[in-house]
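User: Hello, can you help with two protein structures?

Assistant: Certainly.
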Amino acid sequence: MKKKWIQRQQELLNTAKAAGRELNDEEQREFDELQGMIDADLGQTKSEEEVREEAIKAERARCREIEGMCKSFGIDSTEYVEKGLNVEEARKAVMEKLMKDKGPIQQGGTAEVTADASDKFRDAASDALLMRAGIDIKNPAAGARELRALSLRDLMIESMANEGNIGLNRKSSDELFTMAQRQFFNPTAAFPAILDNAINKAYVEGHKNVAVTFDRFTKKGSLKDFKTSDNNYLAGPAGEFLEIPEGGELKHDTRTDAKLPTRKLKTYGRQFTLTRQAFINDDIDIVTKIPAKYAASARKTINKQVYEILVNNPTIYDGVKLFHANHKNLLATGTGVTQAAVQKMILALQSQKDQFNESIIIRPATIVCPVGMSFDFYELFNSQYINTAGNTQAVNPLYRYANQIEVVEDPTINVLCGGNGNTMPWFLFGAQSDTDSIEVDYLNGQEIPTIRRMETAGQLGFVWDIYLDWGVSVMDFRGIVKNPGTTITDPLS
């Protein structure tokens, strides 16, 4: 037997020598194993205890290396360890599995980047915070339900333990907060990232669910910077087609332009803090409900600015108030909801002429009114017949507008006019495709507020900025008609 071992050693040496190289790792491992057996046969081996210790160390090293390799690819190492594969055999098996499951990356393709365990924990922890706060999460991350009962302190301990910190349960909440503050500038720290994720998801929900109405009758626009956009021109109408006699010539049409109103963005924002006290008190509303309220506040602010234009009637780009007799968009006398008033407003809207004194077709699309008028509008538009002065019934001419005109009711008008008991106006808007009346511009079209954690040291807490860039501009007076309105009775009086 010893002779065969020596022969095999020689074969290994000859193979390497013929290739002009040293023994590779696999060959060296086999050579050393053979030498160990030869030494043992010669009685030169170590004690049984020493041999056992070395075998245990070698086995641990094998298992550790295979487990580490498998973990980096997100693969379970149990199968390869239990089969007794050496490291090279396990590496080959892992590569074969990756090729089978993932397939090779084709030229021009993209590699799929999968989330590691820390990323998955951050997603689960942030969703758990939102679920605990009562925010509905449609598809929570895996593990979120198991974490939803944890406090801010518990989540921090869990996240920092995953990063190798030990003995955190023995520390006070104050000490833990101090540790969290030290992680403020660390981009890989889990706990600040969990807070950021929760806040981002919360304020997106708040922005999406807030009840505002301005975007139902205004146009959404986009500007690329904060400069005053004053170089927009509207091309004039194409000249009418003229009859060409036999042998006659085509006549050249001269184009005319008209300058449009200017548009400009402004930045609006707020700041909020997860203070030391809030962390110790486990006040999760700071990172869940408060961001959602700020995001909603951004939309409400825009909503209020749009209605302030309608109610306050400012002077616009041509030096005349938005609603004025010269603009032919203001009823001389205010009324409540009547057939005659609506018909007058539709007629005024459709009688407008453009900047070049050409007739335009504006379809009535939206009635905007204070709370307390919508019931009368629904009755007016949805009744097929009306009572005449002679107490007989006649066809309601406004019935056909029931599916064409949307009624938008907003309490912002009530508040801006001083509340119920005061005179409140209402408005008829034309379709946005026919004319642009009021435009709300956003920087590069981004209408969801930006939120970021402050990078300023010295704050006793985590600080976030939330801001949004927008501008509200009156683009054309022709697409709106105002009825000065009537008094809205207080329902509780």
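That covers the first. Now for the second protein you mentioned:
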Amino acid sequence: MDIQKLGNLLKTGETICVEFKRAGDGAKNDTFETICSFLNRMGGDILLGVSDDGKVIGIPPNSVEQIIRNIINVTNDSNLLTPSFYVYPEAISYQDKTIIHIHVPQSSDVHRFKGICYDRVHEADVKVTSTEQIAQMYIRKQGIFTERKIYPFIKKDDLRLDLLPKVRNLAASKNPEHPWCSMNDDELLRSAKLISRDYQNNTDVLCGAAILLLGKDSVIQDMFPAYKTDAILRRVNVDRYDDRITVMTNLIESYESLVAFGCKHLSDKFFLENGIKINLREKILREMIGNVLIHREYSSARPARFIIEKNQMFTDNANKALNHGIITLQNLCPISKNPIIASFFNQIGRADELGSGVRNLYKYVKLYSGAEPVFNEEDVFKLTIPLDDEYSPEAGKRSEKTTEKTTEKTTEKTTEKILRLVKATPTITTARLAEECGISIDGVDWQIRKLRKMGRLTREGGDRGGRWVVIDEPSK
């Protein structure tokens, strides 16, 4: 939650998907009733420490950590919120006061708090007691989410349960105290909502999300015969391809294969953010591949694609469009197409809060390519990322902070220093050059590409065991 979006919520006031709570002495039942109703309707945002009229009251700073811990404990307790659901409250400083923001996504399940089902109607949380009304909620959710479709004859033997240790390790990497780490296989599947309740036959069954996330390859192809993701490189042979893989396995291993394909063919660029070295390529691929796997409409016969070209890369996939046209930061209204899969990816650290992927891509693509991504939502969702191997985030950062004249002088000095160092030590590494010149490795790569284009530098041999050769400029 950024400050601008927070300010907009406060100005807009309470709506069907925005709720304010004072919560000065902690989160009470009405907070969890709202969480329940948001899960059952279309999701929303809860702000604790704000009065009904949008005035920021604030939370006592010494109570913030305890309130957040209590919210996490209650929403993870299946005896209170059924089925349990993981939310991640965050403390935000606004106008010198602390408030707590809780983003609640739309759930593919029907939830109850303390045995009571709540729905969101206008700005109120309404108890739903009628059997017919509750049945309609189940019907509505199963009609929206393909992943919710149940398969009564699929058994746990049809799943790759050998992947669950990896799932626990990934969850623990994000949160060392993650509940999945102490659960057995059956408990984990239920917690992840991969086991659903067939109320017509009063039995527990596996849903489509379980098959897609953990199914054996043969089972996935039987249940979703059109399911596959083509990853294609087209740079030299644009009529066909230079490299290609077809991924038809579970979503956990599909993610790994597609990210590895991207890493194989994309430039590795780094950026220093708040003193931490950020791998821009990995940041972009995480969001891009996560998006094409999480939000795809799996009932469609159209395969998904991940294509890398010379000046751009893109993904496209079948989509159940809720909005149409170009998505920007200004009109972003995130709605999860497969909330069970989205939540699962969130738990294992391969996705973040709904909507964060768009914001992250706008941020990191600008650093990676010097341009902005394009999100086009229609019946086929297409995400396009511009590519520019010559663009350097290090060079871009310098040009913003200095005048053009100063930048040229600084770049010229760095160029000459690299030539001197390479001439003295032809086997010098880019890491050592970066250290000697006081710039990033990516900055060194940018300089080397420039020198090779100028004809001042060439390479003999491979990356290992090779050497640099400086070509002196002809005397004038």
